[in-house]
Structure formats: structure tokens, C-alpha cells
Specification:
401 residues, alpha/beta, Rossmann fold, 4-stranded parallel β-sheet, 11 helices, 13 strands, 19% strand, disordered N terminus, disordered C terminus
């Protein structure tokens, strides 16, 4: 179930109107507004994949065009009535917006639509909560959820404005809203302390590998680009891989052997996505920082996706946010089996490796990738030992298939 079930929406107790959120469920309506952005169609398709990946039953979609969001309802009064009619006709449990809603907009929409309303951020957080497997991954997701929830306490639930009563509690007291904020703050602090401890342990492990002169390579890329499939093909690790968004949340690390280079640590990381919630990036920062410490980044790209250039930009943006944009990078154009393009490598006018074209699913081009890894890592190691400036690292100039 996508959201925790709660009490019915509107309850009158005396003169105080209480707002209890509607129950959640699996039957959903998707809503997307076109504000004139060029990637609108791709964004809607991505929302469908997110909903399907969460195991939801999509009963219908509502789309529209606006120049700007409505302050109260985001979609405007007429479109809200259209959504309400579809909800009533399909008996949907949840309406999911392909946008980020304010707490007030969520509250107003739930009162108007008579069902649960969530936004894109909440859907992504729900998927992360479902998929996290490791203890650290679960802590990171919980931290992101609490940080997101803390913003929803503001004007989102009017019953939280009530003051607690009882013997010794009459008078000013502590409002329920303040209590909830304080409890969330305490839990957030505890989570950050536990994650900091785990992060310290991971940094100690990385320093140990560096002392042993073991090179590290990090796989990054847009979600569903085929990182885990490529990781399994290179390492035979058997990591979970599926044709769905955010199949991998927990970083998996394995060693591979490369001729002339020796053992190399290869890490599979969480996939990125456009408009990735800031709270998630912040919560997973400790995990993603391992990418910034890598000797080489393999940027895995879905060469069959018509939105690959936009996806490349989204990945580069996150890499910059976590301080990994200066790490040498090799672009791996994956899924050649869906494009008909032959395996190969791309070099610039100076002969420097820029990209490799492979199919992780069929294995085509994987030997070229191993040779490229050996060439780059060996060249970097020689230059590091000589103390020379690094001018052979692959650049991040975009290539298209």
C-alpha cells in the first residue's frame, strides 16, 4: 500500500474542524500539467513507470496546460472538478501529481477530491522505502521521509494545532504541532548520528583500500539505465536487477581483475532521476560521496532512450552536487541490443577514450569495456606515480549514438 491508512477526512468535534487524511490504497489516478517544458511527455511517461514500479493500479490520467500553478489547488478549480469526477467514477484511492505540492495544496485537494493526494516526491520516497534492503539504506530513507514530513506539519493538519489537555497540562502547554516537530527533530538527530557513524566506518574501509593501492571504479547513471545488469556482467555478483526504476538502492561492491592493473573495486550505486528530491540526495550523500573518492566513474547511459541527453544532464547535476564532477569519467552507452548499433569505442581527436558502446544484456562490447578500463586506470596510475598532471582522463563531453 502506497501510504499509511488513517481516519476519514473531515471530522467535526465541537467548534474545532479536524482534518484527518484519507486512507491510502493501490488504485490511483495520475495528474500532470504542462507548463511549457520541452520534456513534458517524457516526464509523464516516467511518472507511469514510477507508479508501475510501486505496484500501483493506474485507473486513469488527467492532463492539462497552465502558465503557472494555482496557489490553492495547483490545477485550478475546473480541473479539480474534472479530477474529482474521475475519482468518483473509478473509485480511486489516491491521486498522484507529477509535481511537488505544498502542504496547503495537498490539504485543499484532499478536501476537494475526497481521497488521498500525494506528489511526485512522496511517490519516490515510497518506492525507496519499499526497495531499501540494507540497514544503512533503510536509515537513509527514513531520514528523507522525516525531513519531508516535517514540512507537511505546517498547516497540513489542523488538528495538530490543538493544545494537549489533562491534569497539569491545562493552560498554554505544548501544542500537538510543536510536540510532533520536537519528536521528529529528536529522531532526525538520532538517524544522522547513526548514519555519520556508518559513514566513518565506510571512509575507514576506503582508506584501507587506498593504502593497499586498490583502484576503485563507481557505476553511476540514470535510473533503469542498466547499471546493475552491467555490474553483474562484469563481476558475476548476482546483484538484483530489474527493468524498473530504482531497482537498486543499496551500494554493492565487488572486486574484478583487470590485466596489467590487478584487482579493482567496482561499486554499483543508486540511480538518479530528474527532480530527485533534495531530502533523498541529502540522506544518501554519505553513500554517494564514495563516488567522489573513486578513481574512475563509469557513467552508464541508456542509448535506446529518446531522453538520454536530458538524463545525462540530470546525472551530471547530481555528480556536481556531491562533489564528484572532477572525477575522471568514461561514458558507457548501454542497451545496444535495442538500437542495432555495433559495439565500439569513442575517442577524441587526440585519441583519448571518451565512450564505450555495449550491451550488458547480451554481453556485446564488454571485452572492449574491460580493455578501456585497463587503459585508463593504467595510464592514470603511471601519471600518479610520475607526479604528472592528469591530461589523459576521459572528458565529460556529451556523445550521442
Amino acid at each position: 500500500m502506497i501510504v499509511r491508512r488513517m481516519q476519514p477526512a473531515w471530522v467535526e468535534t465541537g467548534s474545532v474542524p479536524l482534518f484527518e487524511r484519507h486512507a491510502g490504497g493501490e488504485r490511483v489516478i495520475l495528474v500532470a500539467l504542462d507548463f511549457g517544458t520541452p520534456d513534458f511527455a517524457e516526464s509523464v511517461a516516467e511518472l507511469r513507470l514510477l507508479a508501475a514500479g510501486a505496484g500501483l493500479d493506474i485507473l486513469g490520467e488527467v492532463q492539462g496546460k497552465r502558465s503557472r500553478p494555482d496557489a490553492a489547488l495547483f490545477v485550478g478549480s475546473g480541473k479539480a472538478d474534472e479530477i474529482a469526477a474521475l475519482v468518483a467514477a473509478t473509485e480511486a484511492d489516491v491521486v498522484i501529481f507529477n509535481h511537488e505540492l505544498s502542504p496547503a495544496q495537498e490539504r485543499n485537494l484532499e478536501g476537494r477530491l475526497h481521497c488521498r493526494v500525494i506528489d511526485r516526491v512522496s511517490l519516490i520516497l515510497d518506492i525507496f522505502a519499499r526497495r531499501a534492503r540494507s540497514a544503512e539504506g533503510k536509515l537513509q530513507v527514513e531520514l528523507a521521509q522525516l525531513q519531508h514530513l516535517s514540512t507537511r506539519l505546517v498547516r497540513g493538519w489542523t488538528h495538530l494545532e490543538r493544545q494537549r489537555g489533562g491534569v497539569g497540562m491545562r493552560g498554554p502547554g505544548e501544542k500537538q504541532l510543536e510536540t510532533d516537530r520536537r519528536l521528529i527533530g529528536v529522531r532526525v538527530k538520532a538517524l544522522r548520528e547513526r548514519l555519520a557513524k556508518l559513514g566513518k566506518q565506510r571512509r575507514t574501509q576506503r582508506r584501507s583500500r587506498m593504502r593497499q593501492n586498490v583502484l576503485s571504479v563507481a557505476l553511476v547513471g540514470y535510473t533503469n539505465a542498466g547499471k546493475s545488469t552491467l555490474f553483474n556482467a562484469l563481476t558475476r555478483a548476482g546483484a538484483y536487477a530489474a527493468d524498473q526504476l530504482f531497482a537498486t538502492l543499496d551500494t554493492t561492491t565487488r572486486k574484478i581483475y583487470l590485466p596489467q592493473v590487478g584487482e579493482v573495486v567496482l561499486s554499483d550505486t543508486v540511480g538518479f532521476i530528474t527532480r530527485l528530491p533534495y531530502d533523498l540526495v541529502a540522506a544518501f550523500r554519505a553513500t554517494l560521496e564514495a563516488t567522489a573518492d573513486a578513481d574512475l566513474i563509469l557513467h552508464v547511459i541508456d542509448s535506446a532512450s529518446p531522453a538520454r541527453e536530458r538524463q545525462i544532464e540530470a546525472v551530471e547535476l547530481v555528480l556536481k552536487e556531491i562533489g564528484a564532477d572532477a572525477v575522471p569519467q568514461l561514458r558507457v552507452y548501454n542497451k545496444l541490443d535495442l538500437t542495432g548499433v555495433a559495439p565500439g569505442v569513442g575517442r577524441d581527436e587526440y585519441g583519448k577514450l571518451q565512450s564505450v558502446y555495449v550491451s550488458a544484456q547480451t554481453g556485446a562490447g564488454l571485452e572492449l569495456l574491460r580493455e578501456a578500463l585497463s587503459e585508463i586506470l593504467l595510464a592514470n596510475r603511471v601519471q600518479d606515480e610520475a607526479g604528472a598532471p592528469d591530461d589523459t582522463s576521459p572528458q565529460t563531453t556529451a556523445h550521442s549514438t
